[in-house]
């Protein structure tokens, strides 16, 4: 198999475009796709300060690497979830990446903040680990970005993440979640802008990009992901994509095209400031404070 652009030996074929590419042209192609996504959705501007949240995995480290290469100002944020060996290794990969690429890194440790890792926190608050984890991460990403003057929070969500979340949301008809699955969520008061520059890239492509760029990332999956519905949906979509390459892309593009239909049905809730922490919420007290600052919430309620 030869590279379509230069006739050297191809290292990968991008099935969706029926395009075999050598290492050099593959890396160039992927970076071009990210530039296009940034442009298509007016995600970020050159002068903006970007907070890239990194888990130590291929996607988040690749997006940080690409944005730095493109000349953006990047700061890394890692949340150590306190999941034993997995979290130690994740943090190690982020630290190694930060020093190799001279990018500043901030680590927030749940054990230091709350005395417990995400598993124990979920157990003591009667929440499912993954839903608590998602909520805690979103809260810290936004809070850190807001308090430290960043213009946007950048995540490494790829096309597989977006389409599997979309299918899972359709299966449960969670329209309020679907309308938030856009490549950009604009700033709104204390809610900072959130962008996903990898939305045109599949997981297979980000893995190949990280490998071919010598990015050392964590290969292990989080132990809590083993039975997740999300992964099952991801596998199912991979089977469909194998038969009909391009399905994921057109599925996601379809959401963006038809978003207005769902937005009409789904009224945007009014945001107010949480009575405890002051960050935006649709209730009097945000879910983060309700779950993790129970004592303060009780005190607040007793003074009403
Ligand atoms: Fe968090 Fe692990 Fe669940 Fe992902 S799988 S949401 S990292 S607990
Ligand atoms: Zn080539
Ligand atoms: Zn709050």
Secondary-structure class: alpha/beta
Ligands, ions, cofactors: iron/sulfur cluster, zinc ion
Shape: globular
Helix content: 40-55%
Task: Output the radius of gyration.
Answer: 20 Å
What do you see in this structure?
The protein is α/β, with parallel strands linked by helices. The protein folds into two domains: 27-268, 3-Layer(aba) Sandwich (Rossmann fold), CATH 3.40.50.620; 271-304, no CATH class. 51% of the residues lie in helices and 12% in strands. The chain contains 13 helices and ten strands. The protein has helices at 23-40, 58-69, 84-100, 110-114, 118-125, 129-147, 159-171, 175-178, 203-212, 229-243, 247-265, 287-292, 294-302, and strands at 12-14, 19-21, 49-53, 73-80, 105-109, 152-154, 184-185, 193-195, 272-273, 280-281. The protein has a six-stranded mixed sheet with strand order 5-4-3-6-8-7, sandwiched between helices. A two-stranded antiparallel ribbon has the order 1-2. Strands 9-10 form a two-stranded antiparallel ribbon. A hairpin with a 7-residue loop joins β7 and β8. α7 (159-171) crosses α11. The longest helix has 19 residues, at 129-147. The radius of gyration is 20 Å and the shape is globular. The structure holds iron/sulfur cluster and zinc ion (2 copies). One zinc ion is lined by residues 3, 5-6, 8, 21-22, 24-25.
């Amino acid at each position: 198999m030869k590279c379509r652009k230069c006739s050297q030996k191809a290292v990968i074929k991008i099935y969706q475009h029926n395009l075999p590419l050598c290492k050099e042209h593959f890396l160039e192609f992927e970076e071009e796709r990210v530039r296009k996504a940034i442009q298509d959705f007016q995600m970020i501007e050159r002068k903006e300060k970007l907070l890239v949240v990194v888990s130590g995995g291929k996607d988040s480290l690749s997006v940080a690497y690409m944005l730095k290469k493109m000349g953006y100002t990047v700061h890394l944020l890692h949340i150590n979830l306190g999941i034993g060996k997995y979290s130690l290794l994740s943090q190690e990969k982020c630290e190694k990446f930060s020093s190799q690429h001279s990018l500043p890194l901030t680590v927030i440790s749940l054990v230091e903040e709350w005395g417990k890792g995400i598993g124990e926190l979920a157990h003591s608050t009667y929440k499912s680990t993954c839903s608590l984890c998602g909520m805690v991460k979103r809260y810290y990403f936004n809070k850190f970005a807001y308090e430290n003057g960043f213009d946007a929070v950048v995540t490494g969500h790829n096309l597989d993440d977006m389409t599997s979340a979309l299918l899972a949301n359709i299966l449960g008809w969670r329209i309020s979640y679907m309308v938030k699955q856009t490549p950009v969520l604009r700033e709104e008061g204390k809610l900072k802008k959130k962008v996903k520059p990898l939305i045109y890239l599949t997981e297979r492509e980000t893995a190949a990009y990280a490998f071919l760029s010598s990015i050392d990332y964590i290969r292990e999956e989080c132990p809590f992901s083993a039975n997740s519905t999300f992964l099952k949906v991801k596998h199912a979509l991979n089977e469909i994509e194998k038969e009909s390459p391009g399905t994921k892309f057109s599925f996601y593009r379809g959401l963006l095209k038809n978003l207005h239909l769902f937005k009409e049905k789904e009224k945007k809730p009014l945001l107010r400031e949480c009575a405890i922490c002051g960050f935006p919420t649709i209730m009097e007290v945000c879910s983060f404070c309700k779950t993790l600052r129970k004592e303060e919430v009780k005190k607040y309620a007793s003074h009403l």
